[in-house]
Amino acid sequence: MKAKIRKLVTFVEETRVEMDRAVEPPTRRAAAVAVIENPFAGRYVEDLSLLIDVGEDLGQLLAARAVGALGIEGSRAESYGKAAAVGENGELEHAAAVLHPKLGAPVRKVLGKGAALIPSSKKRGGPGVALDVPLGHKDAAFVRSHFDGMEVRIADAPRANEIMVAVAVTDSGRPHPRVGGLTKDEIKGVDGLR
Amino acid sequence: MPPVELRKRVTLVEEIFHEGGPVAKTPYRRAAILAVVKNPFAGRYVEEIVGFSDDLKPLGLDMAKLLIGALGGDPKAIQGYGKGAIVGAAGEIEHGALWHAPGGYAMREALGGALAIVPSAKKVAGPGARLDVPITHINASYVRSHFDAIEVGVADAPRADEILLALAMTTGPRVHNRAGGLEATQIKGLDGLR
Prior knowledge:
Chain A is α+β, with helices and mostly antiparallel strands. Chain A is 20% helix and 34% strand. The model of chain A has no long low-confidence stretch (mean pLDDT 95). Helix content of chain B is 19%, strand content 29%. The model of chain B has no long low-confidence stretch (mean pLDDT 94).
């Protein structure tokens, strides 16, 4: 493990009622978040390959934890997303290095599939900053019922020299989807879009 | 009294490896479980409210057991606890006070007994409000190494007519505790204080 992890935090949300209507089965989503040291804090470094490798480690670790927190097989996961918040002494490019080159492949391995792009967001902020992790269906990005987001935050992270990295996984879409569009029953699952 | 209407449940587990000092042999874990329930008294003054406290007992016990589960499932591993409530804007702080008895006794029951008073915090606030839930040792309130707190909150709760109920537990002292005072090994375990 190349990441220097200070702490790991897991969140699970289970929604049972929305607007007085029962949600059956309840919608559930989980996020696993790692708070790691930013090896490049405070200076400009050209080669970010260390953080790229860190992303690979964290993809596996965080996806396994999120799926484990839902208590399901990886293949039963329906949507996913990822995000990172860089502490004040880092740059957005550090978040990009963790998230984009290598984090996705191990996430998909844990979930069995994952034809769709993993939606992502990133920001720089101080401890307690709210990170909104975008969510989309893992096999078909256009499944409208699964467009969603999950807010995560940790009171003491990221510190100035840290990066907070999140992977979110669900076993469902929004509670009462009714805005039309492609449904999950219609997924072809070939191109990652439909 | 109406049955308790549970809209959503959220658990979060923090696993802390270090905080700038030596890496702990066993990571320190603190966790919270939150339940968002409808406030049956929202929007008006109701004199007789104490029955709702009894209504919350089964929910409290469920939450306590789930929380122990989130920390690995062994009640003997739990060393600290706390509780709290955030009442939505159409309610009053007194509604949050209804959580004192069912929240505390639920944790004691699930833990197989605990002597110390369960520390608590509560407030009236809007969706996304954060609450610092105080935590102390389960058998002796004065154990200094176990004084702690966990910040909780849910982006979309409590709505005006809801109450967010929280229970918190920890598996040990603070990760780098070295502030002296009564130690867990010195507990007499008679009065819940020392």
